[in-house]
Design a protein that fits this description.
Blueprint: H1 2-23, E1 28-30, E2 41-45, E3 49-54, E4 59-63, H2 72-98, H3 109-146, E5 157-159, H4 161-181, H5 185-195
Antiparallel strand pairs: 1-2, 1-5, 2-3, 3-4
Helix pairs in contact: 1-2, 1-3, 1-4, 2-3, 3-4, 3-5
Length: about 210
């Protein structure tokens, strides 16, 4: 029970972090590398919007106008993050039902453990989708930064904080889901059959 609870809390924290990473606009940010450092305006771009932060503290954000005009890696990362959040949501529901510390379905512990394992599998899939989305976006940012171009180095983009949040979220989701998958219903089934085994017959005593 303690292992299931620890796995659930880790997976829940991973899902919340994945939600924060999907919403944050800091998937890539202006690079300050190079000789001439420009600090007047800092640009940030995410899956849903792009923002410009001025040195005075004013931040202006703008939603991406058209879905079809976006680059392929942004559309793919969007889809993967949405799938990850949906899988994590259903994983939360199933894990609450299947954990031993909850009162739902106590009359059938085998089915309850199977539900907990199913929730753990959903958390693992959610973490893998988050990892794929973040890694794909990071690969594109790396490619655009190091490719030969006339754009100055200080005008290019590098990793934003949302990418690191996404990597941490995927790690927590996979870890929590793995702990939940340790609830093996086969052991409980053998234990129930052992306890329910009828006592040996004592007919010989009356012969």
């Amino acid at each position: 029970g303690a292992r299931e609870l620890a796995g659930y809390l880790a997976a829940l924290a991973g899902w919340v972090a994945a939600l924060a990473a999907a919403v944050l606009p800091q998937w890539r940010q202006s690079s300050y590398a190079g000789d001439a450092i420009i600090t007047a305006v800092g640009l940030h771009e995410g899956l849903w919007m792009s923002c410009a932060a001025q040195s005075t503290g004013q931040v202006q954000c703008r939603l991406h106008d058209s879905l079809l005009s976006l680059e392929v890696h942004i559309q793919t990362s969007r889809a993967l993050m949405v799938i990850a959040l949906l899988l994590g949501f259903f994983g939360i529901v199933l894990s609450v039902v299947g954990m031993k510390c909850t009162k739902v379905g106590e009359e059938d512990p085998v089915t309850k453990s199977r539900i907990a394992v199913a929730g753990g599998v959903l958390f693992i899939l959610s973490g893998l989708c988050t990892l794929a989305a973040v890694s794909l976006y990071a690969t594109q940012v790396t490619y655009e930064f190091f490719r030969e171009s006339t754009i100055p180095v200080n005008a290019r983009y590098e990793f934003g904080s949302a990418l690191f949040v996404g990597w941490g979220a995927s790690s927590l989701s996979v870890l929590g889901g793995s702990l939940l998958c340790c609830s093996c219903p086969a052991k409980e089934r053998r234990g129930q059959q052992y306890h329910r085994q009828p006592p040996p017959s004592t007919a010989r005593e009356y012969v």
